[in-house]
Amino acid sequence: MTALLLIAHGSRQPEANDDLYHVAAELRRRGHVVVESFLELAEPDIDGGGRRCVEQGAGRVVLVPYFLSAGVHVKRDLAAARERLARRYPQVEFRLAEPLGQHPQLPDIVAQRAAEACRAAPAPGS
């Protein structure tokens, strides 16, 4: 079984983490095994999320960065987390997916959000 370890940066403000929970719930609805985790400032952390994936019986865990770009967090921190989990659970395959940034559908999403803003009623004082 493959589990998706969905990873966001994390925030001390719970509502700021809601987007990750929303995406995870939608992926679950589509039949995926998903565990949410955070790089910092929120729980569970990546190690705890990886442990939950293993406890659920995953033979493969894909670390999926909910990040726009492959900055230092993805290239250094998430790569190190993948290596750490692979050492801790040698019976499980751990892979690191690409961040969202250069996905071909992202420009469509950005254009859609811009169009939505243009259709919305203007904010008071604008």
Question: Can you describe this structure?
Answer:
- The chain is α/β, with parallel strands linked by helices and 126 residues long.
- The chain has a single domain, classed as Rossmann fold.
- Helix content is 42%, strand content 18%.
- A four-stranded parallel β-sheet has the order 2-1-3-4, sandwiched between helices.
- The longest helix has 17 residues, at 72-88.
- It is elongated, with a radius of gyration of 17 Å.
- The N and C termini lie far apart (52 Å).
- The model has no long low-confidence stretch (mean pLDDT 93).
What's the quick description here?
The chain has 126 residues and is of the alpha/beta class.
Structural class, from helix and strand content? alpha/beta
Proportion in helices = 40-55%
Count of structural domains = 1
The third-level CATH topology is Rossmann fold
CATH architecture: 3-Layer(aba) Sandwich
Mean pLDDT: 93
| Major sheet | 4 strands, parallel
Look at the structure and give the CATH class.
Alpha Beta
How are the strands ordered across the major sheet? 2-1-3-4
Give the helices and strands as they follow along the chain: EHEHEHEH
- Which percent range describes the beta-strand content? 15-25%
Could you name the key traits of this structure?
single chain, 126 residues, alpha/beta, Rossmann fold
